[in-house]
Design brief:
Blueprint: H1 4-16, E1 29-34, E2 40-42, H2 45-52, E3 57-63, E4 66-71, E5 75-79, E6 85-90, E7 99-105, E8 109-114, E9 121-125, H3 129-132, H4 146-154, H5 160-165, H6 175-185, H7 198-217, E10 254-258, E11 261-265
Helix pairs in contact: 1-7, 4-7, 6-7
The chain binds a DNA duplex (16 and 16 nucleotides) through helix 6.
Length: 275
DNA sequence: CACGAGACCTGTTCGC
DNA sequence: TGCGAACAGGTCTCGT
């Protein structure tokens, strides 16, 4: 489900609370339950349950697609992968279908991690850097200038789409927002990263930031049954619009496979270099 | 270094 | 209606 805008939306909802549930900041953890052992990457289930009890949630941060919960003595990291989701429900709610982990608080609410495909992972660790170490830069972090981005991208000789989806290069982009950013930048997904001129790289970085910021403004994208509440799917230009007319030129949107992932583009607005 | 294939999983939709 | 294939927001690891 989640790319940067969806993870950021979840982070904000957990911090602020919603009309459905209160903020979980400053909540004290009473106990944890694990229904699917593999969901817990670290430590063992027994360790997790004994370590997490009596810790308070001091802060919730995000790094790429990871949620980073700062607890009293440890950090809880969560990656939702393809189908993970988080809900805050009354403590006495029955266990839901696909519920993998539950953490109950002292205020009558509980945090539940739902994940049909079981790809999602939790880590309870002392040092989050051990896991986040290899992530690339935060796209919304202004620290990376357009020129720096051009230099970074030019160092690789890779197909642009898989490079943008490589979390070691840039953290937070997935299949949806990569396709949308390449469309806005007018770049074919198969373009080689080292063939971009400065102005193309500049436009690409601005397009990446634009789609991510717009995604956050719309509370992320809701597709199928998985992620609720987001609205960005109504603003897609190419993702899952195969056979529909390009909003700029009317050409029908095409779907190809790049790096084993569905890839959507307008063949007129995103010309393959050299064709 | 760059890339493709396969693995990890379950649920929904597509095509015949 | 039924049934297998294809497909789905993401990484990992291994082999070339």
């Amino acid at each position: 489900m989640p790319e940067l805008p969806e993870v950021e939306t979840i982070r904000r909802m957990l911090c602020k609370g919603t009309s459905e549930y209160p903020s979980i900041l400053a909540c004290k953890i009473m106990n944890g339950q694990v229904f699917w052992g593999k969901t817990l990457a670290k430590p063992s289930v027994d360790q997790f349950i004994s370590d997490i009890a009596n810790q308070k949630i001091d802060d919730i941060d995000r790094r790429g697609k990871y949620l980073v919960f700062k607890l009293t003595r440890s950090f809880l990291l969560i990656h939702l992968k393809m189908s993970g989701d988080i809900k805050i429900v009354p403590e006495n709610s029955p266990t839901e279908k696909h519920e993998r982990v539950a953490i109950s608080f002292d205020n009558g609410w509980k945090f539940i991690f739902i994940d049909p495909r079981k790809f999602g992972r939790l880590w309870l660790v002392d040092d989050p850097e051990a896991i986040l170490l290899n992530l690339g830069f935060e796209p919304l972090d202004e620290e990376i200038s357009e020129r720096k981005f051009w230099e970074k991208i030019s160092r690789h000789r890779r197909v642009i789409k898989p490079l943008l989806m490589d979390q070691r290069f840039i953290a937070g982009l997935g299949n949806i927002y990569t396709d949308e950013a390449l469309y806005l930048a007018g770049l074919h997904p198969l373009t080689r990263s080292n063939t971009l001129g400065f102005h193309q790289a500049e436009l690409l970085l601005r397009s990446i930031r634009k789609v991510l910021q717009d995604g956050i403004l719309q509370n992320g994208s809701s597709i199928d049954w998985v992620y609720r509440g987001g609205n960005f799917q109504n603003y897609f230009n190419v993702y899952r619009r195969t056979g529909m007319p390009c909003r700029k030129c009317g050409t029908l949107i095409e779907r190809i496979i790049v790096g084993q992932r569905s890839t959507h583009l307008c063949p007129t607005c995103q010309k393959y270099p050299g064709s």
